[in-house]
From TrEMBL:
Residues 12-100 form the 2Fe-2S ferredoxin-type domain. Belongs to the 2Fe2S plant-type ferredoxin family. Keywords: 2Fe-2S, Electron transport, Iron, Iron-sulfur, Metal-binding, Transport. Pfam families: Fer2. PANTHER family: FERREDOXIN, FERREDOXIN C 1, CHLOROPLASTIC. Its cofactor is [2Fe-2S] cluster. CDD domains: fer2. This is 2Fe-2S iron-sulfur cluster binding domain-containing protein.
Length: 114
């Protein structure tokens, strides 16, 4: 009976930019990526700017901020998510999107804002 109260929250793994990243419970895709040195372009971190669009190749996420109105029907149907508002519910495979082009980034090669 008490076992479920004390059971650790599930941890998931995410494949992103040729890396496997552990995702802590309730941590967004963006938070996990940044903690592991993978830069996802971002601005507001609240779903308002749309800079953190990513393509969910496999897995399931929960949007913690309802922002689907900013995504077109085509984007929704092709698996586009906002990394800043997405929490993993399963293991994930994600691609970073910049200027409508899929890209891979690493610590050595990352877009920057000045």
């Amino acid at each position: 009976m008490f076992k479920s109260w004390f059971a650790p929250a599930p941890r998931y793994r995410m494949q992103l930019a040729h890396q496997i990243i552990d995702i802590s419970p309730n941590q967004t895709v963006l938070q996990s990526a940044l903690l592991h040195g993978v830069n996802i372009p971002h601005g507001c971190k609240a779903g308002g700017c749309g800079m953190c669009k990513c393509r969910l190749i496999s897995g399931k996420v929960e949007q913690i901020i309802e922002n689907t109105a900013k995504l077109t029907a085509t984007e929704l149907n092709s698996g586009i998510i906002f990394a800043c508002c997405s929490v993993a519910k399963t293991d994930l495979r994600v691609e970073i999107i910049t200027n409508s082009v899929t890209m891979s980034t690493s610590r050595d090669q990352a877009p920057a804002r000045v």
